[in-house]
């Protein structure tokens, strides 16, 4: 007796035990879109003296980290992305104005001697803090010469705050103040100018007690200037953090309120529970006990996926949660493939256990091919997407790998332990199923009308292209650049009232949308101070208003993301074609990609006609559709190859028709399993997840239909130009007789 079942059971128990341990001991790492806070993405720029390479960006990262720590932000995250970008995550910081101005300010600090007062028209003149003009000498001390800085207050010195500074080199400060102290009391040259980013923030005259030539000993000074506590603290943070080695540009900013994050987690949890219950009821109804065991494996899949993500330290984002929920529906696909093959094998044999074993063996090829195509889409999302959408790619990839463990290891261990001890009817594998029975009895010849199906598909694609041309795509801020702000309101706001309030705030060209519980404002040029004015204008018209979400994408980054989106779709199609051509034959790959293009065009055209936004979440949906659509076509062509080789002498069209009819039960059951999850996302998710679910529902429906009515007829047409003969069926190896008793002597 083979020991394989025993070792599979040991491996399954080990995987489940480790996953449970990690799940119970590791806390999830939530992204800012789930826990609230601000994310800033800076891009370093070349300065006249320093090139913005990876080393300069790392030095700038160290400065930003000191500033974030000095601001008192709990658990900030700062990482370098690529060579020139720095991602800063500040949990709990909901005022992006303060965060951007303090964290990303260049902060070139210098102490200059004052050469005298300047006259109007002097190009070298610099205005002081009171509006007067000064002529400054060369900097004597820069920010690198400062060792510490802190905000101070003392009731005995009067109200207000100042900044206390300690210098690394006492001699330079003493020499600078000693030279200034030799000037007369009212002479401007007795002042010391403190310059931050070419702006004089303070130019105090020296006290009469400072002796000429000796200066101020001790290497310390105070910057005064009628500061508030916040101003003094921010200035101390900038000085203590030091000067940035290179200038920074803010290219992306996202702010999410904590209430929106909590609502997103709650909605995703409801969608996961509802989708899992619907999927479980469906799969148990169709496959009975085998289906029930697969539901147990599906629960284990959820634990395994979560444990892997937690162990990796992955950040859970809102699109990532959507991917986690969606992967539940996709995880059932491998089980459906195995059970349908086992049903077919049972009709040809007399035992459930041999039929189940052959089901696992024969379904492996289609399972592997279909999951590789989904992994290609997930990899492209991770490498080419931006922001939280990367989390969707990671979650999708982990979900695919975990689904393989769930279906091919855990489901196999559970079913092999039970199947054979119960009757065929209770097992769920003893009957071919209602769909297969109906197809076998009717045997419809779908491919006889192949040209008609291709013409219908062409008509749908033409309608979609007409929408793209006539309406265009409604690109979101992520692809066009600009700022998007969502405000939550206590009561519904009419669109005209919201638009009037935004116009009165000085932003007449903004795109304003109003709903039952909030207002969204989008504009290409919308500054942080403009957002504050809009919030005040809305409060004056509709009452209490709170900022729910804010996104800013710089124009250069928007163009880059738009380009990356097109590259991602193009590379996805090319890689799928290359994989299918290698795995099958070029005519199969071309037919699958043709059907895939129809799927993508139809979904994009539908969004154009509906005016739905095109953003990173839509890109995630499109790449998921690419993976799912090719997944379905791989299963069909895998069966085409098998039937064509087994039925030598029959027309190729007959093999295609037979493959479509044989795989249709799997296609219907898998599609329904995914649709249950997506319907739950549509019911419980927010606007972005609802659009994501709509795109996927349309993609799954068109992908399922195109597998039969576009890919099949196209493969028949292209087969005329593919002269290679069908592959021969693999010859079964005869069992070798066992010799000897097996005893060890």
UniProtKB/TrEMBL annotation:
<keyword id="KW-0472">Membrane</keyword>
<feature type="transmembrane region" description="Helical">
    <location>
        <begin position="589"/>
        <end position="610"/>
    </location>
</feature>
<feature type="transmembrane region" description="Helical">
    <location>
        <begin position="276"/>
        <end position="309"/>
    </location>
</feature>
<keyword id="KW-0811">Translocation</keyword>
<dbReference type="InterPro" id="IPR022813">
    <property type="entry name" value="SecD/SecF_arch_bac"/>
</dbReference>
<dbReference type="InterPro" id="IPR022645">
    <property type="entry name" value="SecD/SecF_bac"/>
</dbReference>
<feature type="transmembrane region" description="Helical">
    <location>
        <begin position="6"/>
        <end position="27"/>
    </location>
</feature>
<feature type="domain" description="Protein export membrane protein SecD/SecF C-terminal">
    <location>
        <begin position="252"/>
        <end position="415"/>
    </location>
</feature>
<keyword id="KW-0812">Transmembrane</keyword>
<keyword id="KW-0813">Transport</keyword>
<dbReference type="Pfam" id="PF22599">
    <property type="entry name" value="SecDF_P1_head"/>
</dbReference>
<comment type="similarity">
    <text>Belongs to the SecD/SecF family. SecD subfamily.</text>
</comment>
<feature type="transmembrane region" description="Helical">
    <location>
        <begin position="668"/>
        <end position="686"/>
    </location>
</feature>
<dbReference type="Pfam" id="PF07549">
    <property type="entry name" value="Sec_GG"/>
</dbReference>
<feature type="transmembrane region" description="Helical">
    <location>
        <begin position="565"/>
        <end position="582"/>
    </location>
</feature>
<feature type="transmembrane region" description="Helical">
    <location>
        <begin position="616"/>
        <end position="637"/>
    </location>
</feature>
<feature type="transmembrane region" description="Helical">
    <location>
        <begin position="692"/>
        <end position="719"/>
    </location>
</feature>
<keyword id="KW-1133">Transmembrane helix</keyword>
<comment type="function">
    <text>Part of the Sec protein translocase complex. Interacts with the SecYEG preprotein conducting channel. SecDF uses the proton motive force (PMF) to complete protein translocation after the ATP-dependent function of SecA.</text>
</comment>
<dbReference type="InterPro" id="IPR048634">
    <property type="entry name" value="SecD_SecF_C"/>
</dbReference>
<feature type="transmembrane region" description="Helical">
    <location>
        <begin position="452"/>
        <end position="470"/>
    </location>
</feature>
<feature type="transmembrane region" description="Helical">
    <location>
        <begin position="321"/>
        <end position="342"/>
    </location>
</feature>
<dbReference type="InterPro" id="IPR022646">
    <property type="entry name" value="SecD/SecF_CS"/>
</dbReference>
<feature type="transmembrane region" description="Helical">
    <location>
        <begin position="391"/>
        <end position="415"/>
    </location>
</feature>
<dbReference type="InterPro" id="IPR005791">
    <property type="entry name" value="SecD"/>
</dbReference>
<dbReference type="InterPro" id="IPR005665">
    <property type="entry name" value="SecF_bac"/>
</dbReference>
<dbReference type="InterPro" id="IPR054384">
    <property type="entry name" value="SecDF_P1_head"/>
</dbReference>
<dbReference type="Pfam" id="PF02355">
    <property type="entry name" value="SecD_SecF_C"/>
</dbReference>
<dbReference type="InterPro" id="IPR048631">
    <property type="entry name" value="SecD_1st"/>
</dbReference>
<dbReference type="InterPro" id="IPR055344">
    <property type="entry name" value="SecD_SecF_C_bact"/>
</dbReference>
<comment type="similarity">
    <text>Belongs to the SecD/SecF family. SecF subfamily.</text>
</comment>
<comment type="subunit">
    <text>Forms a complex with SecD. Part of the essential Sec protein translocation apparatus which comprises SecA, SecYEG and auxiliary proteins SecDF. Other proteins may also be involved.</text>
</comment>
<comment type="subunit">
    <text>Forms a complex with SecF. Part of the essential Sec protein translocation apparatus which comprises SecA, SecYEG and auxiliary proteins SecDF. Other proteins may also be involved.</text>
</comment>
<feature type="domain" description="Protein translocase subunit SecDF P1">
    <location>
        <begin position="58"/>
        <end position="114"/>
    </location>
</feature>
<feature type="domain" description="Protein export membrane protein SecD/SecF C-terminal">
    <location>
        <begin position="535"/>
        <end position="718"/>
    </location>
</feature>
<protein>
    <recommendedName>
        <fullName>Multifunctional fusion protein</fullName>
    </recommendedName>
</protein>
<dbReference type="Pfam" id="PF21760">
    <property type="entry name" value="SecD_1st"/>
</dbReference>
<keyword id="KW-0653">Protein transport</keyword>
<feature type="transmembrane region" description="Helical">
    <location>
        <begin position="363"/>
        <end position="385"/>
    </location>
</feature>
<feature type="domain" description="SecDF P1 head subdomain">
    <location>
        <begin position="138"/>
        <end position="246"/>
    </location>
</feature>
<keyword id="KW-1003">Cell membrane</keyword>
